[in-house]
Known about the structure:
Blueprint: H1 10-32, H2 38-45, H3 49-56, H4 58-69, H5 72-78, H6 81-99, H7 105-119, H8 123-131, H9 136-168, E1 173-176, E2 180-183, H10 187-192, H11 196-203, H12 222-231, H13 233-263, H14 269-273, H15 276-300, H16 306-327, H17 331-346, H18 349-359, H19 365-395, H20 402-432
Antiparallel strand pairs: 1-2
Helix pairs in contact: 1-6, 1-9, 1-11, 3-4, 3-19, 4-7, 4-19, 5-19, 6-7, 6-8, 6-11, 8-19, 9-15, 9-18, 13-16, 13-17, 13-19, 13-20, 15-16, 15-17, 16-17, 16-18, 16-20, 19-20
Amino acid sequence: MSESATWPAPRTAWYAVLVLNVAYLFSYLDRQILSMLVGPIKADLALDDTQVSLLHGLAFAICYTVLGVWPIGHWADTGNRRNIVAGGVFLWSAMTALCGRASSYAGLFLARVGVGVGEAALTPVAYSLLADLFPPERRNRALGLFSMGIYFGIGAATMVTGLLVQAIGSSPTVELPLLGEVRSWQAPFLLLGPPGLLVALWMLTVPEPARIGSDAAPSPPFAAVLAQVRSQPGFYLLHTFGVSLLTMLFNALAFWMPAHLKRVHHLEPVQIAFSFGPIMIIGGSLGIVAGGLLADRWRKRGLLDAELRVGITSASCLLPFALATFLTTNTELALALMGPMLFFSSFPFGAAASAIQLVTPNRLRARVSALYLLVINLTGIGFGATAAALVSDHVLHDENRIGDGVAWVAAVGLPLAALLLYAARRHYRAMQTR
C-alpha cells in the first residue's frame, strides 16, 4: 500500500486502541500481581527481596525481550498482527494461572518466564499496528491512550490483589472451587489469569490494517534492521538507553511501593490497595496522555525533537518527587507526593515509542521497536526492581529500607537519562530533515 492510501476510519482506529488498551491492562495486571504478594511468597518459599525481584524482573524479561525481536518481531513485520496479539494474550493468561499451581521457587520462576513469552507478542506488534492506524499528527495521542493500560493494570492488580490478601488474612491456605486447597498467595494468580482468555477472543474482532507506506515486496531481512540502527546510532542508542533509565525507575517504584508502604508506613493490604492503586491509575494515566498531548502540541509548533523534550521534562521533574516520596516517614505526605511522582514517571513513554515509529521505515518498525523494547525491558523490567533490592539487601542490609534503594535508583538514573536524551535530540532532528 502506498503513502497516498487513505488511513482507516477513525472509528476503526479508536476501536483497535480500546481493545489493545484492555489487553495491555491485563498484561500489567498479570505481571504486577506479584508486588502485593511479596510477604506471603517470601515467607512460604523462604526468599529474600532480591530473589522475589528476580521473579518480577529477570524471569519475566528473559523471553519477553528476546522473543519480541525474533521470531515475533519478524512475524509482526510480515504477518497478521491482530492474530499474533490474540495468541500472546491467550498464552500469558494461561501461564499466569499456572503461576498459581507452582509450589517451588524454580516452578514459579519458569511460569513467570512463560508469562513473559506471551507478553512479548503485545507491545512491539501493537506499536506497528497503531502506526498503520493513525497519521503522525495523531499517533502520539493514540500511543499514549494505548499505554494507559499499564497504569490501569498496575492499579487494578494492586486493588484486586490487596482485597484478596486482606480477605485471606493470615491463613496459609484457601479453598477454591474445583481446585481445592491452595496456598494463599497462589489464589490471586488462579483467579486473575483466566479472564484474559476472553480478551484474546475479543482481540480477534479487530481488523488488520493495511501497511501504510509499504508495498507487496517481501519484508527486509533482519540484517536490514541492524543496518537501520547502525546507520543512526546517535539517535537509536542514546534514545533507547535514556528511556531505559526512566523505565528502570518506574519498575522499581511500581513494584516496591506496596512493600514500602507496609514496612515503613505500616499500612494494611486494603489500605495500600485503595491508596496506591487509584493514585497509580489516575496519576499514571494522566501523565502518559499529557506527555503524548504535549509532544503533539510541540510537533505542531515545528519542534522536530518534541518527543525527546517530553522525556527530558519527565526526568527533570520526577527526581525531586521520587526522592521525597521514598525518603519521608510522614504517611500523609508520602501519599500526597505519589500523585505527581506517578504522573511524571509515566509522562515520557507514549512519546518515546512514537519517536521510534516516526523515523523508522514501515517494514522495519516492529523489529526496531522490539530491539528498543529488548534494551529498555532488560534494563528496566529486568533490573529495575532488583537494583533497589540489591541496595537494601546488600548495601544497607535492611529490608525495611527498600524505599532508600528506590531513591538510589532515582538519584543515579534520572540525571543520566536527561543527559542521554538531550544528546539524542540533534540526531533525531537530522533524521527528519533528510
